[in-house]
Amino acid sequence: MSQVEVGHEVNVQGVLLEMRKSIQKDFFRGGYQSVCNKIHPATLSRLSALETTCTVTRNGQALLSQTVVAALDGDKVYVFSYAGQAEAYAKSQGEIQDFRNSLKL
């Protein structure tokens, strides 16, 4: 959670775009490729949010998935990120969604 200065307007989609670029650049430096889906509407706890998920590969094999979610609530912006090995990540989606819904923001 970050406090937003009075009068400052947060561009949540712009924040996610920059975070997504950073993820891709960091993995690229390590010799990996990453593909991210379009930023799309989601929820984080009770808040409307935007999210994107990146899949990191090497030699065509999916190794890791990472999701970044951002939501604005008045004078606060929340960013939630989680990642895991590709197979475990896919199997954990129900548990992850339950956790996201249970957050007290």
How would you describe what is shown here?
This protein is α+β, with helices and mostly antiparallel strands and 105 residues long. It has a single domain, classed as Protein Transport Mog1p, Chain A (3-Layer(aba) Sandwich). It contains three helices and six strands, in the order βαβββββαα. Strands 1, 2, 3, 4, 5 and 6 form a six-stranded antiparallel β-sheet that branches. It is flat and about 45 Å long. The N and C termini lie close together (9 Å).
Structural class: alpha+beta
Which CATH-level-2 architecture?
3-Layer(aba) Sandwich
User: What proportion of the residues is helical, as a percent range?
Assistant: 25-40%
Largest sheet: 6 strands, antiparallel
Shape designation: flat
As a percent range, the share of strand residues is: 35-45%
Number of strand segments: 6
Q: Helix count?
A: 3
Oligomerization state: single chain
Rg over C-alpha atoms, rounded to the nearest angstrom: 15 Å
CATH homologous group name = Mog1/PsbP, alpha/beta/alpha sandwich
* Total domains: 1
Series of secondary-structure elements, N-terminal to C-terminal: EHEEEEEHH
Q: What is the residue-mean pLDDT, rounded to a whole number? A: 92
CATH domain class? Alpha Beta
Q: At the third CATH level, what is the topology name?
A: Protein Transport Mog1p, Chain A
Alpha-carbon distance between the termini? 9 Å
| Low-pLDDT windows of residues | none
